[in-house]
Amino acid sequence: MQISKDKFQLVGTKISEAEKISKPSLSFWKDVFIRFRKNKLAMFGLVLLGVLIFMAIFGPYMTEYDYRTNDLTNKNQSPSSEHWFGTDDLGRDVFTRTWEGARISIFIGAAAALIDLFIGVLWGGISGYKGGRTDEFMMRFADVLYGVPYLLLVILLMVVLGQGLGTMILAMTITGWINMARIVRGQVLSLKNQEYVLAAKTLGANTSRIMAKHLIPNSMAPILVTMTLTIPSAIFTEAFLSFIGLGLTPPLASWGTMANDGLPALRYYPWRLFFPAIFISLTIFAFNVVGDGLRDALDPRLRK
Amino acid sequence: MAKYIGKRLLYMILSLWLIVTATFFFMRIAPGNPFTSEKQLPPEIEANLNAHYGLDKPWYAQYGDYLLKVAKWDFGPSFKYKSQSVNDLINEGFPVSFILGLEAILIAVAFGLILGIIAALKHNRWQDYTAMIIAVAGISVPSFIMATFLQYFLAIKLGVFPVARFETFMHTVLPALALASTPMAFIARLTRSSMLEVMSNDYIKTAKAKGLSQGVITVKHAIRNALLPVVTYMGPLTAGILTGSFVIEKIFGIPGLGSHFVTSITNRDYTVIMGVTVFYSIILLASILLVDIAYGIIDPRIKLAGGKKGE
Amino acid sequence: MKKRLSIFFSMLLVLSMFLAACGGNDNADSGEKGSDSDAGKSDVAQELRVNINTEPPSLHPGLAKDSTSGTVLRQTFDGLTRIGKDGKPEEAAAENIEVSEDQKVYTFTIRDAEWSNGDPVTAHDFEAAWKWALDPNNQSEYAYQLHVIQGAEDANLNGGSLDDVGVVAKDDKTLEVTLANPTPYFLELTAFYTYLPFNSKIAEANPNWAHDAGDDYTSNGPFVMTEWSHSDKIVLEKNEKYWDADTVKLDSIEMIMINDPNTELSMFDNGELDWAGAPTGALPTDAMQALKDAGTLVTQSIAGIYNYKFNTTVEPTSNVNIRKALTHALNRQELIDNILQGEQQPAMGIVPPSMFPENEEGYFPDNDVETAKEFLQKGLEELGYSDPSELPAITLSYNTSEAHQKIAQAIQDMWVQNLGIEVTLDNQEWAVYLDKVHSLDYQVARMGWLGDYNDAINFLDMYKDANGGNNDTGWEDPAYQELLTNSATEADPEVRQQMLKDAEAIFMDAMPVAPIYFYTNNWVQDDNLKDVIVSGLGDAQFKWAYFE
């Protein structure tokens, strides 16, 4: 059997070509983004959040009603073509109030979550990493704050600072960050003795670098989960604060206050509870799946 | 270890003193007093009452008296409930809240862990999504709404459980479920995410490579190391749940301790405020100490004692 | 996009319809109680179950100062008088009452009766109980209810001797009471809980006798307390030693403490309670319409008023025309029909119609927006404004409560729509709120007042002095003061009544308070439960109650 030479073709002899990476180089964040985009559920969550925010901005203008004018003769109407979500006990349009309330609740939820995140991570991180006396001091301070009756704190804040958005956010975050700090501290305590942290230390990395590059990224999972709990608790703390006079002044509405007001009417006018409650749940759902997606995307070990 | 615990107990007393002091002054600064009422008392009667309860003394004398009483575990009489001392209120209310709280914690931990582990093992499959939806419902529906829902559907509509009150085991089911729903959901989420984290660690891969079964890996390696954030969360949660919840007790008419935390403040019932705060704080500080001790057991690398050698 | 949106909405609609449907058929299964009564009419269980909301703060007659404690005490103790079925005081522990010519000396003859432990009820028990309450060492916060007795105020507040108090037990059977002034409502007062006796033998031996149910908790009323489980329930049983035991048909009363109106109504629907709502409990506002539609709601007016007080020491409410404008611009009937839904009466006067029948109509028409605008214009001119929009926003304060908040929002809307002024709401925690209102740190503030006894002075006296404890408005008027002072010593009831009416007219002309509505009690009760008597003051009595 004869095999002629021309049946063969030379493939890739150049070393430079053999070493070429055909996949374009990706920065860390671009990589994260690509992985996130592949996660259908997370993308759905993102879109859902977008829709909720869109409705919070434009929803109140979609009807002819405003959030405050009473119409007592049309009180407690069930959902209809006239009032899409029905009306409340003062005859106000629940659809308009729901989206008016979305502005406040989404803002409050996000603001409280971010502030708790910031203080909590910093406090817990430093406390856990420094350890010893610093840890004792910082954590016992948190305990004391947590032990003093919250309602008393709130009443005092209201008396001293008066009503207002600032007071409300202060009241919400004054103890809100503590859970986050405890969780972060626990993680950092466990992580700081791991080999890679020791290695980084040996290599001369300073505290802030170790925190930023090693400890916090590796605590991301519980941090994200804790954040998703912070949001609903902020939404309902706002309702509680508004109820005792520190938060919103009626007739302004939020999802929390609407749910609060609607709860006793569950047996008779369920839509007054149903709509705010379902949107709170949807928001939390969206934050959760986005959080999960982010977590998966951020974790390089899960890369396939 | 014993030395560390001793030191922590000392810190506990210090923290307790700070809490007592802060609460004492906060409640005195807050407007109103125990005799504030819609129908105002003649000033002479009010002066008389103040003298009887020692409220006319200078603040440092009252504060000193109070610290002494706390040290002796005698919180004095309630201003509002004339027939009970604060110690009576705590002794009668706490057992009720404790039973209910324990039930709730068991439900929350057991179901939370199971849900979380299943979700992590079946990551991004339908089991995971189902667990997620249950957890989201639990997190976004706070206990007072959950309580009303459970009461309405299970007690009123279906008649499976009694509507309210605290008499038999059946009476405790709905309030315990309502109390447990949010912690359960949160524990499920925490467990899931830490499990996922741990499962991708090298030692788990090694275990897999060694041919250990999924079950053994989960129980022996993964759960233990995933427990850390759950344990952290359990500290304050235990203290909060065991001492009772105001809304749950109100909705279900349960004679527990929880309602005193709120009503004592609205009544400005000074002695009750202090009594329940001290009681709660002790449980809180103790459970936080237990959490720190548990850290060392779960993850031997954690050395809180701060000592160079550790035990 | 549009189509999807509508699909989404119809989905929500369907879901909410489903929920609404679930909420619809509530009264279908109103349970267990029926089986008891089917057993035959003769032996129906005579066991009443009611809700009293909260733990009674004290079951010592001298220390009680709230309606929950009053509810229990009224069943367990018998005063000299008791408010009868017809709402008039009738002899109870006293079998005979003589009043002197000048209406200042009352002589009570005590009936042969026993305490629940067998001790005789004597005049000394009354003397001891009243003096106990007046004794400044005993911290009775309601002792001022006894101040109509001669020397009582002095002994209670100013260090006078208890021996000088005008109450003397002449012997075991005779109690002589001397009053400071003729007091036409004194026999109503003797039915009030501060005037109840206690077993002086027991009280001497055990000062803490009222702390728990037990052998030492002796009483002389229709029922005795056999169980007091704090914050949970109280059980009363028929007192076999009661002098009028034949009248009492109930064997026991279980009083549970549930402080949630929805739970209370649910338990009633489930057959776990025989009564839901006032006066011992409360009904959820959102249930009113449904209960009315079902025809089960019972309504009874009581002597009490819900009003908005004006601070007359700050602008703009210092201006009488502004106050009148705000008062006239309210549509009370609309508020009642749509928000309160308890058939309350619109209040255009300050004294309840049960005392002044003229106040069914009041001093001005309800919802008189035209007049309100005229007053507003006049007021604005006096204050130097030309247009309502220039008036700085008025702050309307109320204390934390769902009901107050609803009313405030409705009234805010009425003022905004009818007068074109700006109104902001201010919600405060109860104790903080009282502190603010009592120290005149507000503009307009909500306040309620319930009568302790059936007399107009109850609703007028608090506005006598600007710095009086419950005035809260900073308003006073010499002519008003004179009328009230004179009425106190006036022995002729007709003349006295006229003086009080004149005083009310002066008050309404200055309008330091905007009356809104007169209270009603609303409740639902078991169909077979009869003869629970709720008085005009809103007090429940179970002495005559029975199940058929």
List keywords for this structure.
heterotrimer; A: mainly alpha; flat; C: 548 residues; alpha+beta; Dipeptide-binding Protein, domain 1; Dipeptide-binding Protein, domain 3; seven-stranded mixed beta sheet; 20% strand; disordered N terminus
What percentage of amino acids of chain B are in beta strands? under 5%
Average pLDDT level of chain A: 84
**Quaternary state, please?**
heterotrimer
Fourth CATH level, the homologous superfamily of one domain in chain B: MetI-like
Quick rundown:
The complex is a heterotrimer of chains A (304), B (311) and C (548). Chain B has 311 residues and is mainly alpha-helical.
Explain how this protein is built.
The complex is a heterotrimer of chains A (304), B (311) and C (548). Chain A is mainly alpha-helical and 304 residues long. Chain A is 67% helix and 0% strand. In chain A, α4 (94-130) packs across α11 (220-243). The mean pLDDT of chain A is 84. In chain B, α6 packs parallel to α10 (246-252), α7 (169-199) packs across α9 and α11 packs antiparallel against α12. Chain C has 2 domains: 20-219, Dipeptide-binding Protein, domain 1 (Alpha-Beta Complex); 301-521, Roll (Dipeptide-binding Protein, domain 3). In chain C, β8 and β9 (233-238) form a beta hairpin. In chain C, α10 (320-328) runs antiparallel to α12 and α16 runs antiparallel to α17. The interface between B and C is large, with 49 and 52 residues. Chain C: InterPro entries: Peptide/Ni-bd, SBP_5, SBP_5_dom. Chain C: Residues 1-20 form the signal peptide. Chain C: It holds the Pfam family SBP_bac_5.
What's the structural blueprint in terms of helices and strands?
The complex is a heterotrimer of chains A (304), B (311) and C (548).
Chain A: H1 15-18, H2 28-38, H3 40-58, H4 94-130, H5 132-147, H6 150-161, H7 165-173, H8 177-191, H9 195-202, H10 207-218, H11 220-243, H12 255-262, H13 271-298
Helix pairs in contact in A: 2-13, 3-4, 3-13, 4-5, 4-8, 4-10, 4-11, 4-13, 8-11, 9-10, 11-12, 11-13, 12-13
Chain B: H1 2-29, H2 43-52, H3 59-71, H4 86-121, H5 126-140, H6 143-157, H7 169-199, H8 202-209, H9 214-242, H10 246-252, H11 258-266, H12 270-298
Chain C: H1 2-24, H2 33-38, E1 47-51, H3 67-76, E2 81-83, E3 89-91, E4 94-99, E5 105-110, H4 123-134, H5 152-157, E6 167-171, E7 174-178, H6 186-189, H7 200-205, E8 223-229, E9 233-238, E10 252-256, H8 261-269, E11 275-277, H9 288-294, E12 298-310, H10 320-328, H11 332-340, E13 345-346, H12 369-383, E14 394-399, H13 402-419, E15 423-428, H14 430-438, E16 444-450, H15 457-460, H16 478-489, H17 493-510, E17 513-525, E18 529-530, E19 533-534, E20 540-541, E21 546-547
Parallel strand pairs in C: 1-10, 14-15, 14-16
Antiparallel strand pairs in C: 2-3, 4-5, 5-7, 6-7, 8-9, 9-10, 11-17, 12-16, 12-17, 13-17, 18-21, 19-20
Helix pairs in contact in C: 10-12, 16-17
Pfam family, one (chain A): BPD_transp_1
Membrane topology (chain A): Multi-pass membrane protein
Main location (chain A): membrane
